[in-house]
Amino acid sequence: QVQLVESGGGLVQAGGSLRLSCAASGRTFSSYAMGWFRQAPGKEREFVAGISWSGGSSYYADSVKGRFTVSRDNAKNTVSLQMNSLTPEDTAVYYCAAVGSELDSDYVFKDEYDYWGQGTQVTVSS
User: Which of 80, 77, 78 is nearest to 69 (CA)?
Assistant: First the structure.
């Protein structure tokens, strides 16, 4: 089992920045690839960013590429999402997720992930 707890959400004006963090506990964190997803009201949960078990590979949805940066610290069992140049379209509940994998593969589908956090709300005002 892996427990994931997100933090760092809040209210920010358009053009601003937020940094989300996800703390993991349980089994060996470095054996898991990590992802960030988001879900806006009335919409499907969508992939935002992912990072391989080692941190050597990261990948992004087109909608956030160039604005968001995912990183991880395996020594601290954390994964972060730095979000810059936020727009109202980024408003959603953001979730971190884990999939047991030591491959450098991209995991962009929510059904590929084994564990989920409870989510943190990000609201961007215009």
Answer: 80
